[in-house]
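Saturday, quiet lab. Running sequence design on the structure tokens for the scaffold JK sent over.
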């Protein structure tokens, strides 16, 4: 198969490319650093020549609500239009578990727009909704870290290893399109404050953590909102396995 990975230089994208190559597939990696801009559309038509399936793992650091909805909406419209022209048979989107809960967190609004376009678009599709990755506690605490203090929301999550997400995405891309969604998650529920604390300890990074809902994640994300559905596919790698392997 010839598979295009959008967001190849990202946290998850860097795992996807070798996974496909090891399985003998031909990979077309795209990102702005690879010379293709899915937002402006520059280079997309050429990149899609001969491609069988597209995996979209693109992301943006933008936090403004309108900008993020515009980003995810525009890259998705551009990808789908170019895929239509090139005759691509399968669009696989990496999304997030719990997206149907009506939180107004900007990233979730952008991802909802992306799912809306993919599920009503012209290309057969599969949406793989993953839970938070193992570094999520440390990553979100890092957004506010200053003078050795950081805030983190006490979210309940069931984190998953990026290698496991990569395997689920690779499986989805090589299989028949679901024209539907699947939840994928790690094996155990965790508390995000505890995850951040243990990650920083494993990395030897000294930070005092302050739990709060007054940050990017509010009380509309409390409870079981971010936990996977009953039919979720569970991956084997635990948070403890990830810590023991170096917390990277
Ligand atoms: N973190 C989590 O816990 C989690 C959980 C579930 C799902 N997800 C989803 O996973 C996805 C990937 O996240 P990630 O952490 O791997 O992202 P990331 O590390 O921020 O990587 C983003 C990738 O997108 C590329 N990109 C950005 N703008 C682009 C553009 N205009 N055209 C083409 N490529 C562009 C970047 O490369 P350039 O900058 O070179 O363009 C980079 O390769 C996101 O959609 C996120 O919603 C994340």
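Result came back. Writing it out in full:
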């Amino acid at each position: 198969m010839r598979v295009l990975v959008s967001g190849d230089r990202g946290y998850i994208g860097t795992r996807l490319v070798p996974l496909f190559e090891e399985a003998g597939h031909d990979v077309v990696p795209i990102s702005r650093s690879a010379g293709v801009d899915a937002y402006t559309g520059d280079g997309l038509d050429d990149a899609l020549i001969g491609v069988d399936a597209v995996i979209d793992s693109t992301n943006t650091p933008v936090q403004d609500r309108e900008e993020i909805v515009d980003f995810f909406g525009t890259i998705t419209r551009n990808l789908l239009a170019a895929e239509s022209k090139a005759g691509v048979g399968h669009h696989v989107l990496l999304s997030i578990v719990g997206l149907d809960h009506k939180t107004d967190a900007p990233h979730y609004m952008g991802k909802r727009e992306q799912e809306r376009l993919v599920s009503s678009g012209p290309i057969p599709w599969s949406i793989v909704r993953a839970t938070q990755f193992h570094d999520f506690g440390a990553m979100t605490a890092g957004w506010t870290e200053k003078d050795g203090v950081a805030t983190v929301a006490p979210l309940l999550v069931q984190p998953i290893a990026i290698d496991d997400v990569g395997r689920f995405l690779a499986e989805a891309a090589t299989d028949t399109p679901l024209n539907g969604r699947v939840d994928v998650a790690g094996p155990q529920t965790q508390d995000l404050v505890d995850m951040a604390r243990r990650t920083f300890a494993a990395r030897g990074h000294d930070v005092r953590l302050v739990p709060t809902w007054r940050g990017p994640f509010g009380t509309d994300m409390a409870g079981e909102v971010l936990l996977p559905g009953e039919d979720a596919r569970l991956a084997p790698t635990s948070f403890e396995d990830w810590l023991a392997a170096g917390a990277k």
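Notes for JK: Residues 65-86 form the longest helix (22 residues). Residues 6-13, 30-33, 37-39, 57-60, 75, 94, 96, 111, 130, 132-133, 136 surround NAP (CB under 6 Å). Ask whether to fix the surface positions before the next round.
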